[in-house]
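To: structure subgroup
Subject: Chain for Friday's discussion

All,

I'm putting the inputs and outputs inline so they're searchable in the archive.
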Amino acid sequence: GRNWEGFSPDPVLTGIAMAETIKGTQDAGVVACAKHFIGNEQEHFRQGPESAGFGFTISDAASSNIDDITMHELYLWPFADAI
């Protein structure tokens, strides 16, 4: 997945770190962008053909079905701080 690209599994700490990183980058005159937005955790084998040759039998693409509370409390928090 893409979790290794985040600062922390804690959404509050990630939000603080993301906001400070973006502020520091932009203070240096560089444009910063918060990437890999909401629900992008499944990087490998998201689609069936990608799994061919790896011993996986995935026939459909992966879907992240995230309820509203989880979306706001876990996934959106860091990006809200970044903005």
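Points worth raising on Friday:
The chain has two helices and no strands.
The mean pLDDT is 78.

D.
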